[in-house]
Amino acid sequence: MQKTIFTFFLLFQLVSFSQNEQLALDYFEKGEFDKALTLLEPLTEKQPSNSFYFDKVLFCYQQLQQYDKAEELITKRSKKYFQPYLLIEEGYNWQLQKQENKADKKYEEALKSIEDNPNYAYQIGSSFEKKVLPEWALKAYQKGQELNPNLNFDYQIALLYGQMGQLDEMTNKLLDYAYHKKESAVQVQSYLSRFLIDEANEAFSNSLKKALIIRTQKNPDIFWNEFLSWYYVQQKDYGKAFIQEKAVFKRDPESLHNIISLAKMAVEDQQTTEAASMFEFILSNTQNTSLQVEAEHFLMQSKIDTADKKEYPALDEEMNLLLKKYGFTPYTLDLQILTAHFETFYRNDAAAGIALLQKSLELPLNTRQTSKIKMELADIFLYDEKFNQAILYYAQIEDNLKNDEMAHQASMKMAKANYYKKDFDWAFQNVKMLKQSPSLLIANDALELFLLIQDNSAEDSTRTALQAFSKADLKLYQNKKTDALQDFLQILKQHKGEKIEEATLMKIGQIYQELKDYNETLKYYNAILTEHKDGIYIDEALFFSAEIYTKFLNEPELAKPLYEKIIFEHQDSIYYTEARRQYRILRGDTNI
């Protein structure tokens, strides 16, 4: 019975102690330090060795300006336990009282203790950091390293330099740290990337690049080529990153993994010229059939994108030769799909495209591969205006790959098929849901179609303009650019001032851009910028105009204010990141 009572009493005390601690911490977090103290002081007396309670009580005294009590608490603890960081606490207590001389004296005493034992450097340095005293923390770490070269505080020192705004010193220390502890390179790169993202730190970006280039030139270790490649990737300068990766491959030709990854990033960011160079390099330096096919596929796609109609027969022959060379197998599926697409959308032979893909479906394929073929088949049926067959295939992909990105793409294409079919109500319901797609591009396309149908249904119940727009849009999908252009120009003439006008201006501008008539393109984009300032196409008109000035008309000064407008006024635009990168290039930020 006595044991039971004792156990119950002990449990009661523990519960009471725990409740008091939690209540004290709640008061502390709320800044009610006087209330927190009434509970923390008894806890500290019961557990005098507990540094957690000590720190909290000390902080409360200082916040309540009870500096004498704070000093008494520090002195009492110092007599029981020799802990160098208590000298910093004592100095900081003087600093709070504006007695800088007394504070500095204690800080110097703390530094002097490192001479007795260099291992104190970390404790003292981190204590100074907690008090936001970076200069003193720097002295502690440096002193520790001087007395014991085996200690490495380069990372801590680098971060302190960063806090003090000495970015060059920070960069050099971080790079030295990463080189000597190569497993920390990712950590260092993650930290550096914070400064690279900051728009205000262009000088830092150039300084980092210069430091890396110097190290690459002075030290033949491929570590620096890899690090410099990482830097260029952050800037989306894939061409320069490729130069570094080639240098790495030359000395370590075991793997093309980094160059393959780089090529895919370049494709994703639409840097096709740089990507083509990388794929040509891969093709020349691998015996891996899968990689060869991937490279051939991209290079052929690039040729198609830039070819004239007179070159189509030669390209058709080249693609058929590639299929013979690598075989009609599941490994060449992407080449088969590309060939079928070319036959349909460029040579206007949908029957040939369908026949080729139906043959592809006879191969032993997994669900994803089958869905890829069905997606292209559906696209071809849509080209051939066989809307119901196209919708059927898109629906099959949705069912077979639920919640997959390809299923979301099929859903968007199904909405477009209904839109081309002029079943606007059904298309509207499709895109209403797709606006929330996790894919930014799909969500953006869905929103665009949603607004197009909504705005032009509310204004005109007969949807006359929308029907004409859908018909012209289908011709554009079918790669019949000239016919589509004439239809859109007619819509602009007949429905001037109506809701359909802004979308029509954008379509006309895009077609002229594809036809390389850049002066006409700019005329229609400018109409959006001046007449539809609050419209949904404003960021696209800005970006595409800037791209034309930069890449085709050699007028960078006219491009800069357009990129700048996107950066400052359209930060939610899907073109924001690329606009920011191009603006930096035009401003000369990527040059040493």
Topology:
Layout: H1 2-30, H2 33-46, H3 51-63, H4 67-80, H5 85-96, H6 100-116, H7 120-130, H8 134-147, H9 154-163, H10 167-180, H11 185-197, H12 202-218, H13 222-234, H14 238-251, H15 257-268, H16 272-284, H17 289-306, H18 312-326, H19 333-345, H20 350-360, H21 367-383, H22 387-400, H23 405-420, H24 424-434, H25 440-458, H26 464-477, H27 481-494, H28 500-514, H29 518-531, H30 538-551, H31 556-569, H32 576-586
Helix pairs in contact: 1-2, 2-3, 3-4, 4-5, 5-6, 6-8, 7-8, 8-9, 9-10, 10-11, 10-12, 12-13, 13-14, 14-15, 15-16, 16-17, 17-18, 17-19, 18-19, 19-20, 19-21, 20-21, 21-22, 21-23, 22-23, 23-24, 23-25, 24-25, 26-27, 26-28, 27-28, 28-29, 29-30, 30-31, 31-32
Explain what you see.
The chain has helices at 2-30, 33-46, 51-63, 67-80, 85-96, 100-116, 120-130, 134-147, 154-163, 167-180, 185-197, 202-218, 222-234, 238-251, 257-268, 272-284, 289-306, 312-326, 333-345, 350-360, 367-383, 387-400, 405-420, 424-434, 440-458, 464-477, 481-494, 500-514, 518-531, 538-551, 556-569, 576-586. The protein starts with a helix and ends in a 6-residue tail after the last helix. The protein is mainly alpha-helical and 592 residues long.
Key words describing this protein structure:
592 residues; mainly alpha
Kindly state the mean pLDDT as a whole number? Answer: 91
Low-confidence stretches: 4-17
Tally the beta strands.
Answer: 0
Largest sheet: none
Shape descriptor reads elongated
| N- to C-terminal distance | 84 Å
DSSP strand content: under 5%
Number of helices: 32
Category by helix and strand content: mainly alpha
Radius of gyration, whole Å: 34 Å
Helical percentage: over 70%
